[in-house]
Design brief:
mainly alpha; MetI-like fold; 13 helices; 2 strands; 3% strand; flat; MetI-like_sf
């Protein structure tokens, strides 16, 4: 065996051990827990530890498999869960849109500044995430409550005569989500925009394209991968968000993350909670597939 063949064999061996780490992580922390949740979703709730019936029952040397489809039927017939899914989808969609509309100009501006200023601006984007997520959400309660900072400011400026309800509604949820997830939109967009070749815009200008037309004809299509990546990083976690709707949305707010918490920990109805989880994952598979296809197309170019 010559040296070239030995090097190839060595590289293949090392590549195997490097690749086995992410696959092991995926199997250990996603695939196995998912199948456990899937199994529980087909069982019946009971007052016991754990609080659900086993799927396999051994009786008279026979093994019986009992799959309870009633949990899924219940989800599709109970308006509470349907409204929770629709409300979560609506909030996740508009939050992602708001993050994109705010984050794109920010990422564009950062990508087109000098390297020294760019590093400072990126640090300012990342810096708030160095503090506790919970403390930052609580800070918004102090800003949005009736005697909070924002209402006092509006009263002081004479814009309003009495405090307006800014907390415990969808407005507060959108504010909290956009604030918390904006860096997840800005950073992938910045990573994409900073790679663009400036000669493309120069060529568009030489051909007579105005800056706005050059942006929509060159920059925006080239940043499609960054837009999709940022949107997925915002949309998917917002769908299952629990802390922000609970603290800023109030008791009347209905999102699927809150329903999950109530079913698991308040009602101890693990089969229903598991069915809710599986259905939410199936809904999230749609944007994940879109993201995966976008990544494949990007790699083929």
């Amino acid at each position: 065996m010559n040296k070239l063949a030995q090097w190839r064999e060595l590289l293949t061996f090392h590549r195997f051990w490097v690749m086995i780490i992410p696959y092991s992580w995926f199997i250990l922390f996603f695939v196995i827990p998912f199948f456990i949740v899937l199994k529980i979703s087909f069982s019946e709730a009971t007052i016991a530890v754990p609080p659900y019936e086993p799927l396999l029952v051994t009786e008279n040397d026979k093994i019986q498999l009992t799959l309870n489809l009633g949990n899924y039927h219940f989800l599709f017939t109970d308006a509470l869960y349907i409204n929770a899914y629709l409300n979560s989808l609506q909030i996740a969609f508009f939050s992602t849109l708001l993050c994109l509309l705010i984050g794109y100009p920010m990422a564009y501006a950062i990508a087109h500044t000098t390297p020294s200023v760019r590093n400072i601006l990126l640090l300012l984007i990342i810096l708030p995430s160095w503090t506790s997520f919970l403390i930052r959400v609580y800070a918004w309660i102090g800003i949005l409550k009736n005697n909070g900072l924002l209402n006092n400011l509006l009263l002081g400026l004479g814009i309003i005569d009495e405090p307006i309800q800014l907390l415990y509604n969808n407005f507060a949820i959108y504010v909290g989500i956009v604030y918390a997830y904006l860096p997840f939109m800005v950073l992938p967009l910045y990573t994409n925009l900073v790679k663009h070749d400036p000669s493309l815009l120069e060529a568009a200008a030489d051909l007579g394209a105005r800056p706005l037309k050059a942006f929509f004809s060159v920059t925006l299509p080239l940043s499609k991968a960054g837009i999709i990546a940022g949107s997925m990083l915002v949309f998917i976690p917002v769908m299952g968000e629990f802390v922000i709707p609970e603290l800023l949305g109030g008791p009347d707010n209905l999102m699927i993350g809150k329903i999950l918490w109530q079913e698991f920990f308040n009602n101890r109805d693990w089969p229903i909670a598991s069915a809710v989880t599986v259905l939410m994952l199936l809904i999230l598979l749609i944007p994940i597939i879109i993201f995966h296809r976008s990544q494949l197309k990007q790699m083929e170019k």
